[in-house]
Recover the amino acids of this structure.
């Protein structure tokens, strides 16, 4: 009898699903003309669902140096990580995740997913439809060379966030953080999405990175899930935080 019970227990153990590992930490990397507050709608959802969240302060100086900055941050986090990038932040996470063994998934949120040698500026102009370049203000010279770029405040709403109310868009325009022209022109290194599974979410009314460009990139990275949010702009994580959080949590589940 005891042997039969033992055999039954062994069979049950073999048939039982493996226990899920710890929930990954979600690391959020903002894009150009923004800061970590752009994730304010997504963070509470992730925290409510039991995730540790880190919103990195992206320097916006260039994919190589910004990637190294985020890579150093990743090395301080114990356990698995889902690395999320918005807009230019996609250039950064594609670099930062290289050689980071704890990064188990990449999520591109209305983001660039470059191949080696491509730049953000080059990808943005791959197909027509971007209102961003014509909306840029005169470049601001930097003491060490290069220039800082801003979006002209009165063009920010249409070029960047047309699905936000005028008031919040105006505040975002005033509070925007600049990116260097070097960052837009710098070529990407070998991308981490070739070895790490990727997820993609973007809006079909993105006036900063044309949706056709994003569809091309999502297909190229062989995204495990691609979600196109109807009516959403480039700031889909602000206007549709639930949809973005859902994709991030799908990636987290896939990474466990």
């Amino acid at each position: 009898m005891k042997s039969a019970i033992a055999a039954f227990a062994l069979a049950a153990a073999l048939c039982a699903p493996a226990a899920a590992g710890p929930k990954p930490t979600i690391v959020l990397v903002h894009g150009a003309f923004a800061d970590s507050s752009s994730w304010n709608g997504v963070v509470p959802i992730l925290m409510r669902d039991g995730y540790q969240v880190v919103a990195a302060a992206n320097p916006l100086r260039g994919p190589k140096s910004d990637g190294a900055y985020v890579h150093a941050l990743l090395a301080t986090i114990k356990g698995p990580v889902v690395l999320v990038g918005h807009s230019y932040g996609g250039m950064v996470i594609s670099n930062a995740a290289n050689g980071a063994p704890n990064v188990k998934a990449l999520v591109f949120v209305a983001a660039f997913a470059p191949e080696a040698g491509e730049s953000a500026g080059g990808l943005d102009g791959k197909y027509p439809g971007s209102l961003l370049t014509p909306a840029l203000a005169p470049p601001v010279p930097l003491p060490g060379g290069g220039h800082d770029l801003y979006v002209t405040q009165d063009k920010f709403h249409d070029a960047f966030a047309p699905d936000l109310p005028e008031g919040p868009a105006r505040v975002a325009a005033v509070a925007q953080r600049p990116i260097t022209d070097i960052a837009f022109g710098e070529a990407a290194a070998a991308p981490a999405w070739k070895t790490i599974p990727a997820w993609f979410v973007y809006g079909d009314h993105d006036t900063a990175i044309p949706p056709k460009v994003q569809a091309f990139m999502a297909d190229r990275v062989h995204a495990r899930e691609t979600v196109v949010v109807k009516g959403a702009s480039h700031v889909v994580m602000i206007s549709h935080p639930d949809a973005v959080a859902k994709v991030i949590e799908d990636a987290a589940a896939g990474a466990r």
